[in-house]
Design goal:
Blueprint lengths: L1 H9 L1 H61 L5 H4 L7 H7 L4 E8 L8 E5 L4 E3 L4 H19 L10 E3 L7 E7 L5 E9 L1 H20 L2 H4 L2 E6 L5 E4 L7 E7 L8 E6 L4 H70 L6 H33 L3 E7 L1 H15 L6 E6 L7 E3 L1 H17 L6 E9 L2 E7 L7 H4 L23 H11 L3 E6 L5 E8 L9 E4 L17
Parallel strand pairs: 12-14
Antiparallel strand pairs: 1-2, 1-6, 2-3, 4-5, 5-6, 7-8, 7-10, 9-10, 11-13, 11-18, 14-15, 15-17, 16-17
Length: about 575
C-alpha cells in the first residue's frame, strides 16, 4: 500500500492530465458522431426542402387551374336542359378567367345533344367553333362522358377532369348533372400554353421561392420547366450550369411536363461535407489548443515538482557535503587538542589538513551564496588584469593536500611561452576551476590522473580539466550546466553533490565573456575547457561588473578594461 501511495504521489500530474484528456477525447468522439449524423440529416433536410419547393410550385399551378375551372365551368344545368346554351356567355364573361384558349359547352341532353359552342370574349356571345384541332381534342376528351350519358345512369359525384392527349390543346372538363344526377352536358376549357409559360409559371415560382429560401440562397437557384421531349419551356437563371438537385412533374395539368431545380454552387452532399469538415476542423483545433494548454500546464507543474525534488536533493546533498569537511576539521582539531601531534612536522601536517578542509568548506558555502546571488541577479565580479598561471597554481596547491592520500595525481601541462595577463576576477576563476577539479575527483570510479591544461589559442586563454572518470552521454551534455542537474548514472547515486557546481562555472565564464565546453564519452572520461579572452595592453585597472543570471556578452576589448 505505501508503494502505491508513493507511485500515485509521483505521477499525480500525469493522472490529472489523463483525467482531463479522457473526457476531452470522449467529447471529440461524441462531436464526431454528432457531426456525421448532422451531415446525413443536413443532406436529407436540404433535399427535402428542394423537393418541397418544387411540390409547392406544382401545387400552386394546380390550384390556379382547378380554381379557375371551378369558377368558370360551374354552369347551371338549365343551360342544357332548357336548350339555352347560347345564353351562357354572361356567365363566362363575369368569371373573368385567364389562361384559357377557349371556354366551351358540349350538350349531352335532348335535341341539342352533341352541340358544341365556344365563348367568344370579343363578341360576348357563344359561337360555333372553327378550330378543328381544338374541336377534335374536345370530342376525344368528352367521348367517355358521351358514352356514359347514353347509359342514362345517375352519377352521385362528378369532378373536374383533364385530358392531355393533344399537347397543343389540353382540355379541362367539368361534367354537369341535373337534379336527378343525370349527365346533361360538359363545360370545359382549352388551356393556353403560352399564358401558362408567361404568367402562371413565373408567379408560382416566385411566390413559393420566398416561402422556402432566403434572398441570398434564392440567387444560387435556377428553375426550369421542360416538356415531354425535354425541351426547355421556361427557365430562371442559367439552368445549364450547376447540379440538378430535384425534379418534379406537374400533377393536375401539363402532367407530361416537369420542373427541375439546379444550384449554381455546391450540391447538398458537398455542402454537408464542407460543413462537416469546418466544424470538425474547429473542434480539432479547439482540442489541440486545450491539449496544448494542458501540456504547458503539465510541463510547468512537472518542472516545478522536479525543481522541488531537486531542491530537496540539494539540501540533502549539501548537508552531506558540509558535514564531510567539518568532520575532518573536528577530527584533526581533536588530535591537536589531545596532543597527538608530537612533532612539529605532525602539527604542520594536521594544520594543512585543517586549512585544506576549511578552504573546501569555504568553497561549498561560497557556491551556495553565489548561487543565491546569481538567482536574484545580484552577483558582482571584480575584474582586473591578472596572471591566470598564478590562479591555477594556487588552486592546485589547495587540492594537493586533499588528494595526497587518495591515489589521484594532478598534472599541469603548460603550452609554450608565458601566458599574457587577462582581465578576470581571480577568485571567481579559481572557484570555477575548483568546481571542475572537484567533479573530476567525485565522478571517477577509481583513482587516476587528472590533467590540467593551460595554453593560448587564437586570442583565448584555455584552461582544460581532463579526467578518466565515468564520462557523460551526448544527451546529458546539453543539460549538465543547468542548476541542480546531475548526470543520471549509477555512480551519481553514490556521490553526494549540490548540483550547482557546473551551473556556477557556466555563469562565471559567461560573465568573463568566455565559453565553457565539454567533450566526453561514457567510460572514457571528460574534458572541460574554459576559454577566456586575452586583453592586450591592460593597465591593471579594476572594474566591478554586475551580471544577471544567464547573461552572456561579447569578449572584452582593450577599451572595456577601462570602462
Amino acid at each position: 500500500m505505501p508503494r502505491v501511495t508513493r507511485y500515485l504521489r509521483r505521477h499525480v500530474i500525469w493522472l490529472g492530465f489523463l483525467a482531463a484528456l479522457i473526457p476531452l477525447v470522449v467529447l471529440l468522439g461524441l462531436q464526431y458522431g454528432w457531426l456525421i449524423s448532422l451531415e446525413k440529416t443536413s443532406v436529407l433536410a436540404h433535399q427535402a426542402t428542394l423537393n418541397n419547393y418544387l411540390e409547392a410550385v406544382a401545387s400552386e399551378v394546380g390550384y390556379y387551374y382547378q380554381g379557375a375551372a371551378e369558377r368558370a365551368l360551374n354552369v347551371p344545368s338549365a343551360a342544357f336542359t332548357q336548350g339555352c346554351m347560347d345564353r351562357a356567355a354572361p356567365h363566362f364573361e363575369t368569371k373573368g378567367v385567364q389562361g384559357a384558349k377557349y371556354l366551351f359547352l358540349l350538350s349531352l341532353y335532348g335535341e341539342d345533344k352533341g352541340k358544341l359552342l365556344f365563348f367568344d370574349p370579343a363578341l360576348s356571345s357563344m359561337v360555333i367553333p372553327t378550330d378543328a384541332a381544338a374541336m377534335r381534342a374536345i370530342y376525344v376528351a368528352s367521348a367517355p362522358w358521351v358514352v356514359m350519358s347514353k347509359k342514362e345512369e345517375s352519377l352521385a359525384h362528378v369532378a373536374v377532369t383533364t385530358d392531355e392527349r393533344d399537347p397543343d390543346n389540353r382540355v379541362i372538363l367539368n361534367p354537369i348533372t341535373d337534379e336527378q344526377s343525370r349527365l346533361v352536358g360538359i363545360a370545359g376549357m382549352v388551356v393556353d400554353p403560352k399564358y401558362f409559360c408567361e404568367a402562371v409559371l413565373p408567379k408560382a415560382i416566385k411566390k413559393s421561392l420566398s416561402a422556402f429560401f432566403s434572398e441570398g440562397d434564392s440567387k444560387n437557384l435556377a428553375v426550369s420547366v421542360r416538356d415531354a421531349k425535354d425541351d426547355v419551356k421556361f427557365e430562371t437563371g442559367d439552368c445549364r450550369a450547376g447540379h440538378e438537385e430535384a425534379k418534379k412533374a406537374f400533377t393536375f395539368i401539363f402532367t407530361d411536363w416537369h420542373l427541375a431545380l439546379r444550384t449554381h454552387h455546391v450540391n447538398p452532399q458537398e455542402w454537408a461535407q464542407a460543413n462537416f469538415a469546418l466544424n470538425m476542423g474547429l473542434s480539432l483545433i479547439l482540442g489541440v489548443v486545450l491539449l496544448g494548454g494542458m501540456a504547458l500546464a503539465l510541463r510547468a507543474a512537472s518542472r516545478e515538482m522536479r525543481l522541488s525534488q531537486m531542491k530537496g536533493d540539494f539540501v540533502s546533498n549539501v548537508s552531506h557535503e558540509l558535514r564531510t569537511p567539518l568532520a575532518s576539521i573536528r577530527v584533526f582539531g581533536e588530535f591537536l587538542r589531545l596532543g597527538r601531534a608530537a612533532t612539529p612536522e605532525k602539527v604542520r601536517e594536521y594544520g594543512e589538513y585543517i586549512e585544506t578542509e576549511s578552504r573546501r568548506l569555504t568553497r561549498l558555502i561560497n557556491n551556495i551564496l553565489d548561487f543565491s546571488k546569481i538567482e536574484s541577479g545580484r552577483k558582482t565580479y571584480q575584474f582586473q588584469a591578472a596572471d591566470v598561471n598564478d590562479v591555477v597554481e594556487e588552486i592546485l596547491k589547495t587540492f594537493e593536500v586533499r588528494l595526497r592520500d587518495s591515489g589521484f595525481v594532478i598534472t599541469l601541462e603548460r603550452g609554450p611561452g608565458r601566458l599574457p595577463p587577462a582581465m578576470i576576477d581571480a577568485d571567481a576563476i579559481g572557484q570555477a576551476l575548483s568546481n571542475l577539479l572537484d567533479n573530476a575527483v567525485k565522478y571517477s570510479s577509481r583513482p587516476g590522473e587528472i590533467r590540467i591544461g593551460l595554453d593560448r589559442q587564437d586570442g583565448w586563454i584555455v584552461i582544460s580539466v581532463k579526467d578518466s572518470g565515468i564520462g557523460i552521454t551526448k544527451e546529458e551534455q546539453t543539460k549538465i550546466f543547468e542548476r541542480f542537474h546531475r548526470v543520471s548514472t549509477g555512480l551519481v547515486h553514490d556521490v553526494k553533490g549540490s548540483g550547482l557546481g557546473l551551473s556556477i562555472v557556466s555563469h562565471i565564464v559567461e560573465a568573463h565573456r568566455g565559453t565553457v565546453t565539454v567533450e566526453s564519452e561514457p567510460g572514457r572520461g571528460s574534458v572541460f575547457s574554459i576559454r577566456l579572452p586575452i586583453v592586450d595592453g591592460g593597465t591593471g585597472a579594476t572594474e566591478t561588473v554586475e551580471r544577471p543570471s544567464g547573461e552572456a556578452r561579447a569578449p572584452f576589448s582593450a577599451e572595456d578594461s577601462h570602462a
